[in-house]
Specification:
32% of the residues lie in helices and 21% in strands. By secondary structure, the chain is of the alpha+beta class. Helix 2 runs parallel beside helix 6.
Length: 622
């Protein structure tokens, strides 16, 4: 209620300390997980070697955090529950902040909103001491029993601020947020053991371990064939960590664990960089699984942006993005067979709206297929063109595929002889082609590999187009009869505005009335691919992208991979194409040599792996 003077003018008054603390609590402690975060950060800063956490009903009823850190004296306890009292901030310029906490707001904010009890004992002390705060009312420091270290007990969260309490979610949802907080903090300090219990049910029990083992445990990446290490440096910036292959992804970004100078953050700059790095190797709408740590000079980053201390401000955000995108790009630029997915065939993946259906070849079209396939013969590639490693000797063997013909089974002796030299490769030796779409191969360790021939060939075509584009070597092939493509007027306008950029891709267009464009040339790499479908897809790509505007410098370059991906899709071998053993093995070898060939241009996996142990479990042998 407003206070006013006799003439009706509002009067400014000083709020009580209790009300101030409750207002501050709303900023710092928005839910039980936020209180848990502050308490665990304090435990980490205390030098603890083991932290034990218990929650009841997602922390709404009870949060119990115990550590074996340095502990506090009675005098320290009194100050710890007062606002803006901290032992961690020694630089009043707020620049060189080396601890997770530094504001001195956590305990008083929690005590203002809940019933708080802090029990602590120094390692060289004979007894422990406790202090209690209820709804902002601070009690006396009293002696108690307890081991060295600190135990913080929070009960009845938001009992003093019922308006905030009624907006809490269900215990299940609050527990999920709390678990996510603990996982992120546990990742930042692998040398500290963590134990987490919800309602007397064990959730995490992590020993002190090295970073690789902690990442594997936190990301729960046991279903992946392996984590890819990441290392990168740009000036004073250093990036390290581990990432999962593109075929391991989630519906949300909760699988992205990001640290900056050891501090867990939910930073839009880093998340955007991760998304861009994975954009062309992952299904649209899915999120990568990564654990990354950025080391940056303290004077180049501001952590004092938000009370939760999870958002940052960088002096040079462009350099940070470039480092992350470049480092992840190098880690992802491996050939197929290095990392992939072991599918769980006992559980249905379910349909994905991002899936793209590729129709099989019709028999009537088979005779002319070799002329329409994407890959060039070695002789057709311009001299000096930069190609991915390995393409110089074996440039997309599918380029010379003969027309589809009646399959003739190989003689057993011939098939076995063909397998011998190839089986030691990461993707093994081709055994058969099934359903006219998938290649089955066997590796030296007895695993089975399944390859989607269209998805694989699409990525190989994509990489050649990309390398030729970067080298300025995409050759245009003039059409004997220019093709007229009818499009909505808006899409015609968009395509024509990017005419010079499309010309660099070998696509020469010109206006042909209000709702059509005339196509005069197409990339030679795509052979006689019909331009109608591809131009319509490209128009939709550009129209849907708000960033791709001619007024923005290098706008088309920013979307080039997406455009090349669309071209590669139209120029790749379709499902239903019969392949010989030689052609299948040649495709496998090129996949192993080609960067990013673990996924197609749309992010779908090109290969899946079933270990011998997986097969034994499926058949009940284990």
């Amino acid at each position: 209620m407003n206070m006013s003077s006799g003439n009706g003018q509002p009067v400014i008054r000083r709020l009580s300390e209790q009300v101030v603390n409750r207002i501050a609590a709303g900023e710092v402690i928005e839910r039980p997980a936020a209180a848990l975060k502050e308490l665990v950060e304090n435990a980490i800063d205390s030098g603890a070697r083991r932290i034990q956490i218990r929650l009841d009903r997602g922390g709404i009823d009870r949060i119990d955090v115990t550590d074996d850190g340095c502990g506090m004296s009675p005098e320290d306890l009194r100050l710890a529950v007062e606002r803006h009292c901290t032992s961690k901030l020694r630089d009043e310029t707020l620049v060189r902040i080396s601890t997770l906490g530094f504001r001195g707001e956590a305990l008083p904010s929690i005590g203002a909103a809940a019933r708080l009890t802090v029990m602590s004992r120094l390692h060289d002390s004979d007894s422990a001491w406790s202090i209690r705060v209820e709804g902002g009312a601070v009690g006396d420091v009293e002696p108690c029993a307890g081991p060295p270290g600190t135990r913080v007990l929070v009960e009845d969260m938001f009992f003093a601020t019922p308006a905030r309490r009624k907006f809490l979610k269900s215990p299940r949802v609050e527990s999920s947020h709390a678990e996510n907080v603990v996982r992120r903090l546990a990742l930042s300090v692998p040398h500290i053991a963590f134990r987490l219990e919800f309602d007397q049910r064990l959730i995490l029990d992590l020993p002190a371990q090295d970073m690789a083992a902690r990442v594997a445990a936190i990301l729960e990446s046991g279903h992946a064939d392996g984590l890819l290490p990441v290392e990168g440096q740009r000036g004073d910036l250093k990036l390290s960590g581990f990432i999962c292959a593109p075929s391991v992804h989630r519906a949300t970004a909760n699988g992205q664990m990001l640290l900056v100078n050891g501090r867990p953050v939910v930073d839009p700059v880093l998340r955007t960089a991760v998304r861009v790095a994975y954009r062309n190797v992952m299904e649209h709408g899915r999120h990568a699984v990564v654990a990354l740590s950025l080391d940056i000079p303290p004077e180049q980053v501001d952590v004092n942006v938000h009370p939760a201390k999870t958002e940052l401000r960088y002096a040079d955000s462009a350099a940070v993005r470039a480092l992350v995108i470049g480092s992840l790009g190098r880690a992802l630029g491996t050939g197929a067979g290095v990392a992939g997915v072991r599918p769980d065939l006992l559980q249905s993946r379910g349909a994905s709206s991002a899936r793209i259906w590729y129709p099989p070849e019709r028999a009537a079209d088979a005779a002319g297929m070799s002329a329409r396939l994407a890959a060039p013969s070695p002789a057709s590639i311009p001299s000096g063109t930069a190609l991915p490693p390995g393409f110089a000797e074996s440039t997309l063997p599918l380029s010379a595929l003969p027309a589809a013909r009646k399959a003739v089974p190989d003689e057993p002796e011939t098939a076995l002889a063909d397998m011998a030299p190839a089986i030691d490769h990461p993707l093994g030796a081709a055994v058969a082609q099934v359903l006219g779409t998938y290649i089955v191969s066997q590796t030296a360790d007895g695993a089975l590999v399944l390859v989607d021939q269209h998805a694989a060939h699409e990525r190989l075509t994509h990489e050649i187009l990309r390398e030729q584009y970067l080298g300025g070597e995409i050759r245009a092939q003039r059409l004997l009869l220019p093709e007229v493509v009818d499009l909505p007027a808006r899409q015609v306008e968009v395509l024509l505005s990017f005419g010079p950029g499309l010309a660099r891709l070998g696509i020469e267009i010109e206006p042909f009335g209000g709702t059509a464009v005339l196509v005069r040339t197409m990339p030679a790499l795509l052979g006689k691919e019909n331009p109608v479908g591809m131009l319509r897809d490209l128009a939709e790509e550009l129209e849907a992208d708000d960033l791709a505007t001619p007024a923005q410098a290098d706008a088309l370059d920013a979307r080039m991979d997406a455009i090349i991906a669309r071209m590669a899709c139209h120029g790749s071998v379709r499902a239903g194409r019969k392949l010989t053993h030689e052609e299948m093995n040649a495709l496998l070898r090129d996949m192993e040599r080609t960067p990013r060939s673990g996924t197609c241009s749309h992010g779908r996996p090109t290969w899946l792996k079933l270990e011998k142990a997986d097969l034994e479990r499926m058949f009940g042998r284990r």
